[in-house]
Specification:
Elements lengths: L1 H27 L6 E10 L6 H23 L4 H13 L20 E7 L4 E8 L5 H11 L4 E3 H9 L14 H10 L15 E3 L2 E6 L5 E7 L20 E3 L3 E7 L1 H6 L2 H11 L4 H12 L5 E7 L4 E5 L3 E8 L4 E6 L3
Parallel strand pairs: 3-4
Antiparallel strand pairs: 1-5, 1-6, 1-12, 2-3, 2-7, 6-7, 8-9, 9-10, 10-11, 12-13
Helix pairs in contact: 2-3, 3-4, 8-9
């Protein structure tokens, strides 16, 4: 009996030590209070690009990141962080969204956007608008002020008339650099993924995902679509579950070849793999980017309920940035960074 008592004491000590170790590990891997990631498009950004041009992108990404991070750090909502971060990117003509949108085959700028609140399982999306300065803000209005999820073209413009979103003349979106690129590519060749003189190419869609201090997950994406896209073409961005998705587990935003992203319902595929396989965020991202999709097709950013962030592309480069409450911060362009 005495021997049994001594063994029991030893066992309790060992188990106690084990619990201390486990608690320490859990503390080390504790969930983040908040986290945010954003992208400014994926593609094949040339490694020999001018330092000046590269610096412009890096500074723009860093500024966008600071906007969203400040909101989250001060206890603001993920919805506000995502919307305002994307507003900045839409107003920056470096990116294919809002002000810097590419041209359709008809020489127009037609804008798409979507936002989804995972805590409410609600979303708003618009496609084909031509007078809305910040499409992501109209998408949020759809989510919060209508009984619908998705408005298109004239219907989206009519809905915008009933809101306070800022409107502009379509000429506002006519950035000369984009217009010249459209003229060079508009020689009966249709939608082009490649074709510049140095064989570089990129999809400039912008997106943002965020987790706030209340545990809410939100994803948003905004784009001008694909250069020389045909009349009425709709890409992945406003299709909930394809280019934009959020639930109570993860928020995802895509950039890349819209048709391929749609055919694989990509954002929802990542979320479903994570949920039903009980996989980590990184495992789910790797499955989507490297097993489901083919090379040169897409890139994604995602944040999960614990504030883990994953940003991955199979296109060679993706303009991206991220930050969290632990002080981790990333601004990167190339896939191997």
């Amino acid at each position: 009996m005495k021997r049994f008592y001594i063994l029991s004491i030893i066992l309790l000590v060992i188990l106690s030590l084990g619990f201390v170790t486990t608690d320490t590990e859990e503390a080390t891997n504790a969930p983040k209070e908040w986290a945010i990631a954003l992208h400014g498009g994926a593609g094949n950004y040339p490694v020999d690009a001018s330092e000046e041009r590269t610096k412009q992108y890096e500074e723009a990404l860093a500024e966008a990141l600071s906007i969203g991070s400040k909101i989250l750090e001060e206890g603001g909502s993920a919805l506000d962080a995502v919307e305002q971060t994307i507003n900045y990117l839409e107003n920056n003509e470096l990116f294919n969204a809002g002000r810097g949108a590419v041209f359709t085959s008809e020489g127009k700028n037609e804008l798409d956007a979507a936002i989804m609140d995972g805590s409410q399982m609600n979303a708003g999306a618009i496609t084909g608008v031509t007078t809305v300065k910040n499409p992501i803000s109209l998408a949020r209005k759809v989510m919060e002020e209508s009984t619908h999820v998705f408005f298109a073209a004239e219907g989206a413009e009519e809905f915008a008339d009933q809101t306070t979103v800022e409107r502009v003349d379509p000429e506002y979106f006519k950035v000369e650099r984009r217009y010249e690129a459209w003229k060079r590519r508009n020689a009966g060749e249709g939608m082009l993924l490649e074709g510049s003189e140095d064989n570089s190419w990129k999809f400039g869609t912008v997106g943002c995902v965020a987790l706030d201090k209340d545990g809410n997950l939100v994803a948003g994406t905004s784009t001008g679509g694909m250069t020389n896209k045909k009349f009425g073409r709709v890409g992945d961005v406003p299709i909930i579950g394809s280019g934009t998705y959020a639930d109570d587990l993860v928020a995802v935003s895509a950039t890349g070849w819209g048709e391929k992203i749609m055919l694989n319902v990509s954002a929802h595929t990542l979320a479903s793999y994570m949920r039903f396989k009980e996989a980590t965020l990184d495992e789910s991202m790797d499955y989507l980017v490297n097993d489901v999709l083919n090379p040169k097709e897409a890139g994604f950013i995602a944040v999960d309920k614990d504030g883990n962030i994953s940003m991955e592309t199979n296109t060679g480069s993706m303009f991206r940035a991220s930050a969290d409450s632990d002080g981790n911060e990333v601004v990167a362009i190339y896939a191997d960074e």
